[in-house]
Design brief:
4-stranded antiparallel sheet, Histidinol-phosphate aminotransferase, amino-acid biosynthesis, binds pyridoxal-5'-phosphate, PyrdxlP-dep_Trfase_small, histidinol-phosphate transaminase activity, pyridoxal phosphate binding, globular, 2 domains
């Protein structure tokens, strides 16, 4: 049994899951085994939606594996990385017994999925220091071991804090938690970061899993295509726990087209533009007297503390700019998160916040 498989709930390790009509390898030219319609819907010009889809569309899976630098068998496609987070929690955590480690302030879905599964949530807060919010990896390891955690969620670059965790530190944590917990590295914003992906650590650390998504840099949030990259045997188990047909054909087709060489070249250009706009917006905001702090960011957003966050939020709204209010999150009682937009959109943000200065 592979290392991470030992950590999966015992009752699910050889769970067969639902046997769909699609999972049988049969041959024929008249398919009457899935109660599908014999005719395409009038709106389905290509007749691509009449039959249930391949549970893991092969061409897309291959392309994503190539993009993320892993073997096809190491990659599971789901409905956004949200689905992969949920699958991991359900497959690893026995309700009322096992725990997950999260590092607030952080993306809320890890705790939501844990709550839904009845898993305990162990919080190891990010530490707000001179370089920004940093994960205390020593405290994370100790809390995971002491608290019986099966999963440790690391968000890098971290949403909303913006900081990234060095690969070498992730490797040390994975080694320390070998046989104890799966370290899940959420790289939803990885394309905007300077460091390499944690998928490069997978060969050496079997208790590591990496989340990627097409929702951010690839601009396909509505297509709901996320990937989990991990040990092949673990992927196999999770696939059996997943819904029978998680990837709608129109979404798979759009995603594959969105990963063509030409589309990828444009995506990379836009990532570079976001990175340069991030520098420009950070510099423009940092000098405003109403701004207390702009955190350095490796993502496509900036976390900003204000003297009066309510006034900043209202001023931006009045200018038609909607940003994310972070004030309910721990340690962020005066903070807003501003996504990096187009240069024109960022100009609007700067102009609105300069106007706030004048009114103050
Ligand atoms: C850190 C992080 N992980 C995962 C997700 C979920 O992304 P998706 O389900 O669209 O792939 C988000 C979405 O905002 C996020 O910020």
């Amino acid at each position: 049994m592979s290392v991470p498989l030992n950590l999966v709930r015992e009752d699910l390790r050889d769970f067969a899951g639902y046997k769909s009509a699609r999972s049988e390898t049969l041959h024929g030219d008249i398919w009457l085994n899935a109660n599908e319609s014999a005719w395409a819907n009038p709106a389905d010009a290509q007749a691509s939606c009449r039959r249930y889809p391949d549970p893991q569309p092969q061409a897309l899976r291959g392309r994503l594996a190539q993009l993320y630098g892993c073997a096809t068998e190491q990659l599971l496609i789901g409905r956004g990385s949200d689905e992969a987070i949920d699958l991991l929690v359900r497959a690893f955590c026995n309700p009322d017994r096992d725990a997950v480690v999260v590092t607030p302030p952080v993306f809320g879905m890890y705790a939501v999925c844990a709550r839904l599964q009845g898993a305990r949530i162990i919080e190891v807060p990010l530490v707000d220091g001179e370089t920004g919010f940093v994960a205390d990896l020593e405290a994370i390891a100790e809390a995971a071991i002491a608290g019986g955690a099966k999963l440790v969620f690391l968000c890098t670059p971290s949403n909303p804090a913006g900081s990234a965790i060095a690969l070498a530190d992730i490797a040390v944590l994975a080694r320390r938690l070998d046989g104890v917990a799966l370290v899940v590295v959420d790289e939803a914003y990885g394309e905007f970061a300077d460091s390499a992906s944690a998928t490069t650590l997978l060969a050496a650390h079997a208790n590591l899993a990496v989340l990627r998504t097409l929702s951010k840099a690839h601009a396909l949030a509505a297509a709901r295509i996320g990937s989990l990259v991990a040990d092949a045997q673990l992927i196999d188990v999770l696939r059996r726990c997943q819904a029978p047909y998680p990837v709608p054909t129109p979404c798979a087709e759009l995603a594959l087209a969105g990963l063509s060489d030409a589309a990828l070249a444009q995506t990379r250009q836009r990532v570079e533009l976001v990175k340069s706009e991030r520098v420009r917006l950070q510099a423009a905001l940092a000098v405003l007297p109403e701004v207390v702090r702009v955190y350095p960011s490796q993502g496509n957003y900036l976390l900003v503390r204000f003297r009066d966050a309510e006034a900043a939020f209202r001023t931006l709204l009045a200018a038609g700019v909607v940003v994310r209010d972070q004030r309910a999150a721990p340690q962020l009682e005066d903070a807003l998160r501003i996504t990096i937009g187009s240069p024109e959109q960022n100009d609007r943000v700067i102009a609105a916040l300069r106007a706030l200065e004048m009114a103050a």
